Amino acid sequence: MSERFSVVTGAVGELFFNVSEAIVIARPGQIVAWSPSAERVLGLSADDATHPGTDLMPVFGDGLVVLWHLVEAGGQSVIDCTNGCERVFEATAWRLAGQDDPPTVVVMHDVTDDRRHAKGLKTLNGLARELLAESSLDVLLTRIVDAAKDLTRADFSALITVHDNGPEIDHFVYNAPRDLFPARLPRVVGLLAVPVKTKTVARINDIRGHPAGVGIPVEHPPIAALLAAPILVDDQVVGELAVANGPERQPFDEIDEAMLTELAAHGAIAVSLVKARESQQEAAAARRALMDTALHNIRTPLTVAKGFMATLHQHYDALSATERTEAFAAVDRAHDRIQRLAEGALLDEPMGVSPAGKPAVIDVAGLGRAISEDTMGLAADVSLQWMCEDDAPLSFRSDPQLVRELLDNLVSNAVKHAPPTSEVIVTVRREGDSVRFDVSDRGQGIPAEEQARVFEQFYRTRQSVAAGVPGTGLGLWIVRRLSDLLGGTVGLSSRPGEGTTFWVTFPCEPALRS
């Protein structure tokens, strides 16, 4: 023991007892002195460290070889502690002069936090590029949650995003064993509300018994330490990123907080870009759907116009003056409808048609005449029969243009599937407080397993495709959309080999929905 104190006098003594770095004085194979800082940092007492029989491998692990190298040769190196110590030291060594068999002084500076911070920043820089390139929001959120767990060496990690207009959770992503997933979503209250409401980090060493420890589901993994950082986009909180440790683990420190805050910032930028890309894609998809709808709706009056023009071209001399006038009038009406539809599409109006106006009185008989006249141009060998039952209302109030578009789609669909020289029958009746239109054909019918899908966008039955029936799969989808807009209902009944009836009802006094 006397030698230990004999070598820590003077300047060495000042260094030995008063600096925060761990100091070890040693000869090859023997620790002579072990500073108070070394006791504190390395968790080994001076008496134990200097005892001749002490095995330092549990403290230094492979770094013990480096320590002996420093004792023998001097220089600088890095010593990694193992077996739970998990510290990194930058060591400098030199020999004490003026003594026989002079010992070596090794000064070890703890650079664990600096190294971990630098390593974390390097990881974040690489991750940032990957996050910015990600196009799926779900995948992006999962990547952020996984990175949070790795960077902070946490037991669990989670991410929530909230709606713009309140604290309701929009997304919840959780990194934990499946059997530890909560049975219900957390609530953004208590500790979990701190980052959202204050835009600041919440770092709690132990949430057990904390007065604000509410909001976390009752069924959750046993946790103590909690660290949560807000996700900010343009100074608006869009969510939070949180990590937690079990009761047996250490609390989170300043480096963990810095890493999580930095990751949340990277995540906010990436989330903003992904949402912007999704908005652009949705807008583009809506625009494509709009144009597809407009083109589909234009096809019917265009076919009518072409049919009447073909009749005029081929049979002009055989037609009476009245028939010629009616044919030209039908062409004019078709052109007017094409113009209205095109203008609506160019103005991005819903459904590719002009906006719904105020309800007006629709004369049922007049509606039937207009549709019958225009249907003559759709198919020369298929006729339309318009029938009103005794209880059918003479008129009803709705949007005339949208009602016409809906019925045109049902009639043109029936004409396409009707056998040659057959009839398409439109039957009008009263059904409660509504008026009902049934549009029936005697075609092949629709198999039962496909009937539930015919109103889907772009869906076409297998037999229509096999038979080469022209179409895009948009007509019945438009019918469903227009029916919803007008407050009505739509359905069908069909038997293979016997034909199909599509029906739609309109309230007699509808309240148009936007």
How would you characterize the overall build of this protein?
- The structure is a single chain.
- The protein is α+β, with helices and mostly antiparallel strands and 514 residues long.
- Helix 7 packs antiparallel against helix 8 (137-152) and helix 7 packs parallel to helix 10.
- The chain has a five-stranded antiparallel beta sheet, sandwiched between helices.
- A hairpin with a 2-residue loop joins strand 1 and strand 2.
- The chain folds into three domains: 2-110, 2-Layer Sandwich (Beta-Lactamase), CATH 3.30.450; 115-280, Beta-Lactamase (2-Layer Sandwich), CATH 3.30.450; 356-507, Heat Shock Protein 90 (2-Layer Sandwich).
- It is 44% helix and 22% strand.
Distance between the termini: 91 Å
Q: For this structure, what is the CATH homologous superfamily of the largest domain? A: GAF domain
Helix tally equals 16
> How does CATH name the architecture of the largest domain?
2-Layer Sandwich
Q: How big a fraction of the residues is strand?
A: 15-25%
What general outline do the C-alpha atoms trace?
rod-shaped
CATH class of the largest domain: Alpha Beta
Poorly predicted segments? 346-355, 510-514
Write down the domain tally: 3
What average pLDDT do the residues reach? Answer: 78
Radius of gyration: 40 Å
The side-by-side strand order for the widest beta sheet comes to: 2-1-5-4-3
CATH topology group of the largest domain? Beta-Lactamase
Which structural class do the helices and strands define?
alpha+beta
Helix content: 40-55%
Q: How does the major sheet shape up? A: 5 strands, antiparallel
Q: How many beta-strand runs?
A: 17
